[in-house]
Amino acid sequence: MTRETEQKLAGSLTAETTELIPYLPYLLQDFWELGSDPGVMADLISKHISISAGTRVLDLACGKGAVSVKIAQRLQIKVKGVDMLPDFIEVAKQKVTEHGAQALCDFTVGDINEAVKTERDYDCVIFGAAGNVLGRPAETLDKLKAVIKPGGVHPN
After folding, report:
1. pTM for this one?
2. Measuring CA to CA, how many Å separate 105 from each of 40, 81, 100, 116?
3. Which of 53, 88, 110, 125 has minimal CB crowding within 10 Å?
4. Confidence of residue 93 (pLDDT cuts 50, 70, 90)
5. Which CATH code of 3.40.50.720, 1.10.565.10, 3.30.450.20, 3.40.50.150 fits the domain covering 31-146?
């Protein structure tokens, strides 16, 4: 992980230093569900989106994939999760296999600032608990809107 990436992550956690970043996987090893509540997210998605076999969701800063896996299973939709911590993505890939959702979920290690530049045509984007990594609120909303297909649901 680059120094710049560590600083972004530390900033999102309101940390003043990056010293603990390498230890996050160890410190959070006993937690699968990090950030947003999967049940709440599934309820919000099903309430605001017409679900079909082609529904696609992007989960930015997906952590260990609990939200992605659980909404994919519950709603039978495709979810792509992106997180900058390789150890978290490793757990997400294990969990997707444990839950039999391999056909629905895809996880990748990456900087979400780069993902919002290239990912497109999603029905919904989740950005649950990563602080200000994408910038100030207006800038963050513009970046999130860019990944949504015309007619998709995005934050206003």
Report:
1. 0.81
2. 19, 8, 10, 18
3. 53
4. very high
5. 3.40.50.150
